[in-house]
Design a protein that fits this description.
The protein has seven helices and nine strands; from the N terminus they run H-E-E-E-E-H-H-E-E-H-E-H-E-H-E-H. By secondary structure, it is an alpha/beta fold. It has a single domain, classed as Nucleoside phosphorylase domain (Rossmann fold, 3-Layer(aba) Sandwich). It starts with a helix and ends with a helix. Bound molecules: hypoxanthine.
Length: 255
Amino acid sequence: MDAFAVERVREYGAEIAIVLGSGLYSLVQQPARDRTIPYQEIADLPRSGVKGHANRFVLGEIGKARVVFAQGRVHLYEGYSAREITAGIRFLARAGITRLILTNAAGSLHPDFLPGSWMMIADHLNLTGASPLSGESGFLDMTDAYSPSWREQFARAAQALDLKLHRGVYAGLRGPQYETPAEVRMLRSLGADVVGMSTVCEAIQARALGLDLSGFSCLTNWAAGLHKTSLSHQEVLKAGDAAARALGQLLEKVL
Ligand code: HPA
């Protein structure tokens, strides 16, 4: 059903894809119509109903590198399965993508990781209770799931750009409710540095397909209980927009 879309991406010849999280769309300039592929064209790929998600792939560029941007991801909290929310990753792999960058908005659990800054994901805690590989045979090694060599390149580039780039552990929860202060204390004691509601299932699917993987969390807020303000999706979108520029610079340097 999506053979035509697969062929279009293959012809474009991109090796890298970037999944854009909430509020991070400004990483892509307004694309020409013939450079977009709506999610409707992809088999099994549900569309996100969440505000801030456009539901399309964009054939774009960062610096000189051809990149496929996924604008809009689908989440477990919308009622879909881990298998359904990762259909886009399987599509990208079929279309010739070999390197994947996952971005997301996350709450900070770490006293030194201020809202507005970025964290490169070194490892994750999948606390969703779900896996896109459920029902498949075989076991997947998740050691070094987030490419160590790619992480090193990004760390060096951030230093050269004088850009603050934290490194740490992303905890992926199912949501859609934000965490309670008690859950935030628990996550901290489990070794998490930031918390969000995406990324972990996509990361598992990407590694199962042999893709090189990187992940970046845009810290949009303090996790619940760490600050007096209450959490809102609006706050998350606003912080993402400003931070997208910083990530754009970093990606341009490395890609
Ligand atoms: N918790 C969970 N998901 C999030 C948060 C948070 O504080 N901020 C952005 N996404």
